[in-house]
Design goal:
The structure is a homodimer of 255-residue chains. Chain A is of the alpha/beta class and 255 residues long. Chain A has helices at 10-16, 21-27, 35-43, 55-66, 78-84, 121-134, 151-157, 171-180, 219-222, 242-254, and strands spanning 2-4, 29-33, 48-53, 73-76, 93-98, 111-116, 138-141, 166-168, 184-188, 195-196, 206-211, 227-230. Chain A folds into two domains: 2-98, 60s Ribosomal Protein L30, Chain: A, CATH 3.30.1330.30; 111-254, SPOUT methyltransferase, trefoil knot domain (Alpha/beta knot, 3-Layer(aba) Sandwich). In chain A, 45% of the residues are buried.
Chain lengths: 255, 255
């Protein structure tokens, strides 16, 4: 077991920068906070490089910590933990995890959620969590979509990235890959000339494209789909939150 | 048109305190920020007491502002607006609105969403917005639920409180009121012995009870309902976000 008590430690200096996407890509690692996420990462067999814990974390999760590989454990001071956390009150446990890029492989049968430029981290995280719960096969994060290793995305996902593949790639490429495998591709738009969501044929292999909070799915993408669908707004609200719309679509397909 | 440029103005001192629930109750008013909400409040006939705008707000919404009653308009300095706002960059327009308590009256036919101790303001606001969009009749906020006039709730609601009644009352009282009117009352729980949500009989007049993010709906409440239902979790996620679960339930009933 290592011990890092000083803020001047080079590792601490590096880890602090993991809140920036650029550093995460450069160092090939990201940070997760809180027992639930750390436990999920270990359980799922993610490449955990270090498990950091404070005095408080040790007291609270001692039983779990002793079961972990000695080489991974790093005792840190409260000051070090606080400097790595973006929470007002850090939980006392965190981990540094290798950023293993997931690729779209051959076994893709099932439902896929494709996110085109969805910017709010809370929305992106919630959508991945819902995709996991609803039983989808995986999620594709297109360009402009909040980064999966952003702390707010990680918190809202609650570990679902360790349950289903979450892949960063261009939406256009994902669509052409899935079309070749005879998937049905459905875009979503707020347009009454589109199909009502619950009139879409339920297919085993499908992809749903959800878009930006303000602009929706880009026109270029909507022209690549088999059909585009909408969720009826009966009241006076102008629109649905994008994570809510995604959930209604996903549970329609998976029920 | 009035002009308030000084931070020492008594009105400014009072309005700043409207971010506290206690002051809102005492003064019987609340503050809303941003053009969209102010416009919705005016359109809906809410009792708007003042419309505050800065130089920038004036430039951007001049056409709309000149259509408003002169007596409501208050030009404020950037400094005053900033002190009233909880946003990093205030939009330049806000309003002080009379807090008119809404009561459950006789015309209640339709679907109702009852929130038992839902604490996250973003969840509460999103649920009210979704209830509006899905065509529900109204929403009841039970004890412990985030206050409707909290800024984060107001932002997430996007004005839906001006479209459907949002009523603060005890869940127990709401249920007994609705039971007398022969409503079907459905609780929600993460329990596989409950009914699957899409096996619930669709009725015209119904109430759905959603509960706290961690604990769910209280047992005492679940014992008052006609049936309790759950949404199946197919993947490895432990649960759904409560606003997501509410949306799946509401769109099931309203489709």
């Amino acid at each position: 077991m290592q011990e890092i008590l000083s803020m001047k430690n080079q590792k601490v200096k590096d880890w602090k920068k993991l809140h920036k996407k650029k550093t995460r890509e450069e160092l090939g690692e990201y940070i997760i906070e809180g027992f639930h996420l750390v436990e999920e990462a270990v359980k799922a067999g993610a490449t955990v490089e270090y498990i950091l814990f404070t005095e408080r974390g040790k007291a609270e999760w001692q039983e779990w910590l002793v079961e972990q590989s000695e080489a991974l454990l790093v005792f840190v001071s409260d000051e070090v933990m606080k400097s790595l956390s973006d929470l007002p009150t850090p939980q006392g446990i965190a981990a540094i995890v290798r950023l293993d890029e997931v690729l779209l492989d051959k076994e893709v049968a099932g439902g896929w959620l494709l996110l085109d430029n969805v910017q709010d981290p809370g929305n992106v995280g919630t959508m991945i969590r819902t995709a996991d719960a609803a039983g989808l096969r995986g999620v594709i994060l297109g360009e402009g979509t909040a980064d999966i290793y952003n702390q707010k995305v990680l918190r809202a996902m609650q570990g679902s990235n360790y349950h289903i593949p979450v892949i960063r790639m261009k939406i256009e490429e994902a669509i052409s890959f899935l079309l070749e495998k005879a998937f049905s591709i459905y875009g979503t738009e707020l347009n009454k000339e589109a199909v009502r969501y619950n009139e879409l044929p339920k297919s085993q292999n499908y992809a749903l494209v959800l878009g930006n909070e303000g602009q929706g799915v880009r026109k270029e993408i909507l022209s690549l789909t088999d059909k585009n669908a909408y969720i009826p707004i009966k009241g006076q609200a102008e629109s649905l939150n994008v994570a809510i719309a995604a959930a209604v679509f996903m549970y329609y397909f998976e029920s």
